[in-house]
Predict the 3D structure of the following.
Amino acid sequence: MEQEKPRLEFYAKHKGSRDITLYVLVLILLLFGLVMLFSTSAYNGWVKFQDSGYYLKKQLFATSIGIAVMTAVSRIDYRVWKRLAPAAYVGSLILSGLVLAVGREYNGSKRWLALGPLSFQPSEFAKLAVILFLAYVVEKQARNMHNFRYLVLVMVLLLPIVGLVGTNNLSTAIIILGIGFVVIFVSSPKYMPFVFMGAAGVGFIAVFLALESYRLERLAIWRNPEAYEKGYQTIQGLYAISSGGLFGKGLGSSMQKLGFVPEAQNDMIFSIICEELGLVGALAVLALFALLIWRFMVIAVHAEDLFGALIASGIMGHIAIQVILNIAVVTNSIPNTGITLPFISYGGTSVVFLLAEMGLALSVSSRTKL
Amino acid sequence: MRKNKTWNRRKILLTFGIVMGLAAALACRLVYLMAVDSGDYAEKAQDLHERERDIKAARGRIIDTKGVVLADNRSVCTVSVIHSQIEEPEAVIAMLTEELGLEEEDVRERVEKVSSIERIKTNVDKEIGDRIRSYEYAGVKVDEDYKRYYPLGDLASTVLGFTGSDNQGIIGLEVKYEEYLQGIPGQILTLTDARGVEIENVAETREEPVDGYDLYISLDANIQEYAQQMAEKVMEQKQADGVSILLMNPQNGEILAMTNVPEFDLNDPFTLHTGEDTFQMDDKTYQDKLNQMWRNRCINDTYEPGSTFKIITASAGLEEKVVSTDDQFFCPGYIVVEDRRIRCHKTTGHGSEDFVHAAMNSCNPVFIEVGLRLGVDNMYKYFQQFGLMEKTGVDLPGEAGTIMHQKENMGQVELATVAFGQSFQITPLQLLTTASSLINGGVRITPHFGVQVCDREGNVVETMEYEEGERILSEETSETVRGILEKVVAEGTGKNAYVEGFHIGGKTATSQTLPRSANKYISSFLGFAPADDPQVAGLIVIYNPQGVYYGGTIAAPVMGEIFANILPYLGIEREITQESQEEM
């Protein structure tokens, strides 16, 4: 019954009551991201393509698509996706499998599917698919979520996508696992199983690292990046951060982006933000993300139903994990692994799906009384 | 529809709390990195971005006693192209080909090569460099630089020395006075990107270079040039291996000229003056030949001085009073020392003669007799007293030491040969310095070139000081020796050095080089003038002359001619003698 007329009800009751704060925060981040992207990529664009606007143009294009997607998704009742969630998950599995077979390589990683002039990164889609799929599964099994066996079972459902993505993109696999962990954690009344899971996860990572010596090397590089050639990126990031001081060198004045920090517009973009805008700017960016996460929390807490709450929690987990890991990597607080900074790092697929998630969050927010 | 339960909310809040906790930790990490402990990394980053570009300091000049510049700097340019900045490659290629006189193919290859910066040509004349700059083609870079330049070419090449590509002295005075001449290079600090490309519109820090100091030396380019010509002339006439001429002021050790012909071109010191094809040579042979060419035989090589050394034997004998000027001797043409019969150069013998005539005749048996009278101990004592056992301390690198018998190995035969200048070796400069010290009144001098060091404006920075030498001979003996030596030139073996109107003292020598069987000789003449108050002392050494090899015949006249020309130049007037008055 309820499922047959959600759309009508949605429009009738909640038109225009989406979370404006979230919307504004996202727009600020997008704008700031584009400015920083241009600042960091102009040099690289010029060196590689004789076009300082090369990366900005591509990102602008993706962002416009993303905004359209966000707007559309925010106007669609999120419960519609319940039915599509299993298909989305299967779809992400297929795409991730496809990328292994016919993916396009860039910088030694096979992570892209070519669609004519455009390229598409299935792992970005997988994050969104996992959020929807887990919200769907957990909602169905809500009564059983206090049962440890079910918790493990739901986690196991994630393993195929984690495995597929993890073969060539360990960082994204960790993010997907993290998102899954957050969604399941929120859905269950228990605490202890998650302590065990956490411990198991740490153990798993330890074994995983010890299995291959090159992974242990990462730890050694982390401890002393100056002593290793592979610590170059890390050390250059630290140089950039430390050069920033309190107020930075001023927008556009980074030296480190001139080829010292490799591909400064990608994972290491936060180090250039530090260099150009200083500690004040860096903390402001951190604060913007904190506000964003706070909005997801508010939306999740006030969500009308469990499905919406889990979607919002998943999105919160996604953004939080990426921001925290990215900044932790850039500040060399944890070993180096390639994680982009949401909305700011260069990446078209990423921004489109992030904005789709924002659309979802907005959609959830529109059914709450905030 | 499943409700969003209380535990769900609690867990969402807990998750949010953990996330905020981690974010706070990262904020602390940022504060630590950027505000508390940023010094080290920030400095390292700065080092990474800065490129130091040295600005060469102009090397100090070397200037002769009359103010003639012997070593100078010339502005030269280095022309390079920066591939990524070139806009009109064809025009650039055409222009560079024409201006630099290079093959179009070579220029094209370099212009079209994808590299950050490609050098087209170095040591381009400033004029051409300026012209290339005036085309204002994008991507063409003209850098100015200094290059050492020797205006007088091969003049005093072995004395002045030259500099290497890094503008550092390699031989000669250029090495010895490096610290004064080199100056302090300045620096331009510029910022570059990771490829090393300089960033425009960034204020560069500039540290101006301090130019090197000018070195003023006692050498007189006119005298040097004349001596060099004379040396070249006699070398050609006698087909000798080489000729060295040394002229110094015997009163203070200032060297007026020092030439070792053949000299080499200081502006092209890596081309052999023999004109040999160096492409056929292996590196070692080539380097050996270069070293040979760069040798300053006056100080780097030792030789047996032969009869010129009799000045020293005579001084020692007279000072020790084992002989006096009117002691009578008899020369049968040989002398027997222990079991050895040592011949006089005049095999028929000089017969009866006093000591002065023995010197005039350069009679070996008499000087052997004097040596034997002195004995090993005294001979050794005077060697040390006269400074022969030490280096002269000349301000040139690579001075060779004296090669002398060990005292305990010195028997009567060795003593006898030493007395007439054989069986030991000293440098030509050591011989002239010692002889000068004996005839100047008896005070040891330090031969030198360096007089003073001035900055570019001519303000004196440092005046070279040379220790007041020790007295090595009494004034009386010195005067006696001068008198004897004047007679040698006036009436004895040195008469070919006689110049009318001047009192000239001197001594000839003809020594056979080792191995004796090769029949190679070194002819030399040591002279000074005026004989009563010497103002100039000279030594000419002719290595391996062909044909007549007697010092008195081939070396003495050269020195005579030099004296005849340079004494008036030095302000020593010709005395009008009776003969010349009659001629007038």
About this structure: The mean pLDDT of chain A is 86. Chain A has one domain: 2-224+292-365. Residues 269-302 of chain A form the longest helix (34 residues). Strands of chain A lie at 104-106, 109-115, 118-120.
